[in-house]
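Module 6 notes. Inverse folding takes a fixed backbone as the condition and produces residue identities as the prediction. Think of it as a translation problem where the source language is geometry and the target language is the twenty amino acids. Below is one complete input and output pair. Work through it position by position during the lab.
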């Protein structure tokens, strides 16, 4: 997921270009851990914030779309369910 969407509760644009959506599942935790170990471990907080996580986002989106329906994995549906970004 990349780009922007609109929070329908407040009609406010939301930048989701560097977002990872967390669901109550362990699915994808190995991808996140592996990405961190390979690309982010040992870097400063400032350096980590400047890094692109697009490859990780793509991998997680693919993984979740294989498991869940596309309508659930769309950004606007995730916001409608009250899921927040970190």
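Target side of the pair, the amino acids:
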């Amino acid at each position: 997921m990349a780009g922007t969407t609109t929070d329908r509760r407040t009609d406010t644009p939301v930048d989701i270009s560097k977002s990872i959506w967390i669901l109550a599942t362990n699915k994808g935790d190995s991808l996140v851990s592996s990405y961190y170990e390979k690309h982010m471990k040992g870097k400063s907080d400032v350096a980590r914030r400047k890094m692109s996580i697009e490859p990780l986002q793509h991998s997680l989106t693919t993984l979740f779309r294989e498991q869940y329906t596309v309508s659930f994995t769309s950004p606007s549906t995730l916001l409608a369910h009250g899921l927040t970004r970190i």
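Reference fact for the lab report: The two ends are 14 Å apart (CA to CA).
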